[in-house]
Amino acid sequence: MLNWTGRIVLLLLITGALWWFYRQIALRIALIRLGKREPVRWDRPLERLAWMTGRVAAQICAIRQRPFTGVMHAFVFWGFVFFSIATINHVGTAFRPGFSLLGHGRLAALWFLGVDLTALFTLIGVIALAIRRYLVRPAGIASPLPISRSPHSALILALIAGLMITYLLSQGIEITLRGEKPFAWMPISAGLTPLFAGMMPVQLAIWNHLFWWSHILMILGFLVIIPGSKHLHLLSGPVNLFFRSREPVGTLQPIDFEKCEQFGAATITDYPWKNISDLFACIDCGRCQDLCPAYATGKPLSPKVVMMSQRAYALAESRALLAGQAPSAPIVPAALSEDEIWSCTTCGACMSACPVLNEHIPAIVDLRRNRVMMESSFPQELQGAFRGLETNANPWNAGSSTRMEWAEGLEIPLMAEIGEAEYLWYVGCAGAFDDRARAISRSLALILRHAGIRFGVLGLEEKCCGDPARRTGNEYLFQSLAMENIQILQQYKFRYLLTSCPHGFHVFHDEYRRLGAEFEVVHHSELIRQLLAEGRLRLKEGGSGRITWHDSCYLGRYHQIYAAPRQVLTTLNGTPPLEMARHHERSFCCGGGGGGMFMEERLGSRISHSRIAEAVAAKAQIVASGCPFCLTMLDDAIREKGLAEQMRTGDLAQLVAERLAGDYPHPV
């Protein structure tokens, strides 16, 4: 127990540390509150709370991507939880000897045992994490970008280790001095008592006093350091998990053009509040960077640096922002460069990997929206795509009157003529205008005919779904196309909206809903699997060769459609498809998303080349996909790498159509 002087000093130190902590946290909350409101974040609060609590308690977010590192992190996390109560006890002993928040019975003894063991495992976790960060230095941490290096990490790890060591030593002295029975429940602390053998009680008291004060000062050091470090995620991470989006990865919110004068994000306050919260929740763990195809191929984009650079920008401009003044410069180029925001393929790998569910893609697209609609600043190649969307309702700028040329000789029914069908097949711009994707359309038409499916297409009424415009920030053009499509689609009766393009699938399935239209959307891989299972497709005997499946980002990560295409390929070949090194949720992008299909890839190496290298390593003869963008990007990569004689691409529909039994013309 401290004397009155010690107690006053302790109270002054605690007050000062809490005041500093409060000011720093209040600053960040004030910045977050400047963001736009999102009422959807508050739905089902009890369900959100239960989900967040379970995820944090089990440390699923940390363990899922990196099991060993995650377990070590879990040790440190549980040390934080246990020592929250231990800290109260520690401070309480300054005013009352033997103070214990849980009393002195069996429950307290069990708790002391838990804290004792937790201190050991926390030390193990800290040592393992320190070795990984400062000796092993994996790519996600050893980034060449200066902003990614947190100056507080070493100090935080040292403080955590110091807390555990001073606690165990202090308890070891207590056992030596008092030898009370409950201390038999503290094997680690009791094991340290030989260190104090032979010491006089006065010496033990001095050492105990030193350890006690060291422990207190380190706890207060946490309060001072944490708000300005990445370790703020201890508090902000659970908040981010609670307010997570319930939508598929990368789903975008529409702009209400009648109520807004500022389009997209020029500065932090233009974001929805959750995007600002993300900046302070970022852990700097590098999981997003590890999976980012742009970063992996030498482009300037790092998803974690996008978060950290904007966090530094928000704090640097906080005085002006909180005063309602304009910042000294907009986010681009003050915090991020044009090349960074235009290198993103919106593949969703960063968001799926993030332990605290930061939403990188909506933030990057909001920056693009501002550059496109407010500043008219965007890659030159997009001018042609935008012009084509405006004049001919397709990014290839092909004449709209040629939209049905792909169907010559196939007698495809038009919805305008039949009025009603089970499936309204949205062919898509690629399927109508791109030569390689036209082969997909012809193949799917044969499959639908073969199975006796009642379907129809929009024909010349069809327009681009708007995905290329939306992902590249031209929200106004997207909404114009979307509203026209909705008006056309609602004229007809159909049960399912069928698409062979995952980008169209996602837009129709999720983003049109925010514009007032809901459709039951089916990707052609799901329909083909169903038709095969029902025996409605008769296949020739034989196999198709060594096939590997490329998981399209918008089909896999966005909508978790992994099983259907693999089941189709297994039926075709009799064996499951070969898997590339990165597959399912960790699949690598083709480079065509986020407008990449219509932009030149000038920086770094080509993303598609990296993906094809994985197919070569898997010894595949055919790279199968379910997306026309993927087919084009991967087919180009095969030709550019000189692999055309040993490998080819094929859409799922093409591979099935090639094996249809009966008198049907060749699909291409």
Number of domains: 3
Question: What is the 3D form?
Answer: elongated
- What integer is the average pLDDT? 90
Query: Rounded to an integer, what's the Rg over CA atoms?
Result: 30 Å
Strand content: under 5%
Instruction: Characterize the main sheet.
Output: 4 strands, parallel
Count of DSSP strands: 7
Unreliably modeled segments = 664-668
Largest sheet: spatial strand order: 2-1-3-4
Helix content: 40-55%
Per DSSP, the total helix count is: 30
Between the first and last Cα atoms, what is the distance in angstroms?
Answer: 87 Å
Structural class of the helices, strands and pairings?
Answer: mainly alpha
Please tell me about this protein's structure.
The chain is mainly alpha-helical and 668 residues long. It folds into three domains: 4-19 and 81-120 and 150-242, no CATH class; 268-374, Fumarate Reductase Iron-sulfur Protein, Chain B, domain 2 (Orthogonal Bundle), CATH 1.10.1060; 386-657, no CATH class. It has helices at residues 4-33, 45-58, 60-63, 67-92, 106-136, 153-178, 187-191, 201-225, 233-242, 273-281, 287-291, 293-296, 303-316, 318-322, 331-334, 338-342, 349-353, 360-374, 381-392, 415-418, 429-433, 435-451, 467-471, 475-489, 502-511, 524-533, 563-573, 607-617, 628-640, 652-657; strands spanning 420-426, 455-457, 493-499, 521-523, 547-549, 622-625, 648-651. Strands 2-1-3-4 form a four-stranded parallel sheet. A three-stranded parallel sheet has the order 5-6-7, sandwiched between helices. Helix 29 (628-640) links the parallel strand 6 and strand 7. Helix 6 (153-178) packs antiparallel against helix 8 and helix 10 crosses helix 13. The longest helix has 31 residues, at 106-136. The chain is elongated.
